[in-house]
Amino acid sequence: ANAAGKSASVQAAVHARVADMQESQQKAINELRAREMKKQTADAEEDLVRKRLEPKLKAWSEEHGKKKQLRALLANLHTILWEGSGWKPVSLADVLDDSKVKRVYHKASRVVHPDKTGHLDAEKRFIAKRVFDSLTQAKVDFDEGKA
User: Among 28, 73, 111, 130, which residue is least crowded by beta carbons within 10 Å?
Assistant: First the structure.
């Protein structure tokens, strides 16, 4: 903005607007850098958690390289979830009926859904994310009649 040839008050207003604009640009850049730094830290933390927990989660969700069925995942969910997750263990007998499978699946989804686990620490978020993905895939297979 060129303020040359304008009155003193207009020049002052133009300079003030330019200064405000530069200040808000710098503030936005700093906020962006802080968010990126926070994300990098969270990603690094998740990598550490992944390396440590991947074998345990794989053992829970797969057997001999093949994905477990929804009923088996739900019946063993208590073995993989963290203390205080709010999950009450169910037995395989509890999920023999299809309607009960769906009911228990929805309860499990509420415990591990990404929207419900954002406040947890990285380890619990990682477990919840993997459990949610495994349950969702098993539910798709269940609905298609594979399970």
Answer: 28
